[in-house]
Predict the structure.
Amino acid sequence: MFKGELGQVLGPWGLLAVGVVAGVIASPSLRKGARRLAVLATRGVLSIADEAKKAAGEVKKVAGEAKGELNKLVEEARTVNAATVQE
């Protein structure tokens, strides 16, 4: 399909990528569109990262509360057990 040296080195996807990059470099409207796309993609990634951080914080908070409740339960069980053994 691609008989030239460049086609053999890059393959069809590589040639497509080179063509897209060349088009973006050569065309101001494509450059503007690529920039908008990059800005939106970056904004999306940052938003997802922020939400993941918030979710991780909530998980840590809930886990800490659960650990505290479990510690209280264990202490109560020990107290009841000690009182039962003394009787």
